[in-house]
Protein: SLC41A/MgtE integral membrane domain-containing protein
Amino acid sequence: MQNWKVFVHISELFILVPSLLGLKGNLDMCLASRLSTQANLGNMSGRSEIFHMILGNIALVQVQATVASFIVSMFAIAVGAIINGTIIFDHVMLLTASAMFTATSSCFVLDFVLVAVILVSSRTTMNPDNLATPLAASIGDVVSISLLAGIATLLFENIDTHLWVTFVMVAVYVFLLPFWMLLVYRNKYTRSVLSTGWVPVLSALFISGMGGLVLDKAVGIFNGFVVFQPIINGIGGNLVSVQASKISTMLHQSSIIGIIPPHAKIFELPWRALFHGVPYAKTARILIAMSIPGQVLFIFVADYIHMSRSTIGFPFVLSYLFVSTVQIMLLLYIAHVIIHMMWKWKIDPDNSAIPYLTALGDLFGSSFLMLAFMFLRSIGHPYGEKASETVDGLGLLTTTSDPATIVGGMLSDLIHDGSGI
Structure:
């Protein structure tokens, strides 16, 4: 979708993408973690209790999605104004309306999917911790990016004649906000989260916004970057969310909030936390092992879809696997530290841990992937680009997307003859 007209004319949409995709980590995956913990504790038995629990959580997610998406759009607009030196009012309204529509609609759809998955798994032998959070992450990516691209394109095509539609959309979401807040406030399961759950959500949005800046910068430099960025970010976020949900459930089952159980410490050695030494290390090493074949499979598929043929070689695979494995190991270790720290400080990790972890996954994934692309270019194996040539002391880099890109200088004319340039 990067070449769609709306993305070309309104580049701030690239800044929105990681933040809006991160919202599913901030909101829906927290919802999945909360309900999974309640299911494992046996609190989802009576129909009345289940109904009130689900209603309060859906309303809470709508409140957070409305406010967070508005803040995300303002961040993208401000950054775009700094970079471009100007503000276009039509684009401001399009970004705001698109962000709010995408966040609220995707969360609403995902909430019902997650509730169904958790209810079914709680009545079978399946553990909802293993199903709900990665399902929220993966489906959330597809739903969010599809809704964002679709509504942004629709509004952009009619922006000259129907700008008023963006005003109506924003007004409707603002009008519904007090209604959702009232439902949350009257619900005993979500009342406390309404006042205490904003710091992790807004902090995570800021971190994801930094990842958006990396994406916006890398799109214009590296061919194919946007093809692999959702893969490294998505897999990292999926895997760490499973670990975070399982650690949180185990803490709820084995200890009282504020007291670290004897089998773990806040700061463990990385080897003990990731491979052998604490009860969660088994899950961590399984997740790390799962990521390697998964990453290899997806990068080959993505490359074939993008280039219509297989183009990646051993240097790319090795570089990509190195940065993706470092990202996942770093996220899993941070998950161990941050969840136990929150538990010690009497902060429920079901409400606060996953937003930070998925946002860090976006930032680490985009940054590490950019480093991998820089390394590949430095050793003469850039993805989707031909080898660098030298013409009169200037490096000439021919890519698949541009006829010629001159590195190190500018040429006003390119004279072609039978032997080359």
In short: DSSP finds 13 helices and three strands in the chain. The radius of gyration is 23 Å. The domain at 1-188 is CATH 1.10.357.20 (Tetracycline Repressor; domain 2).
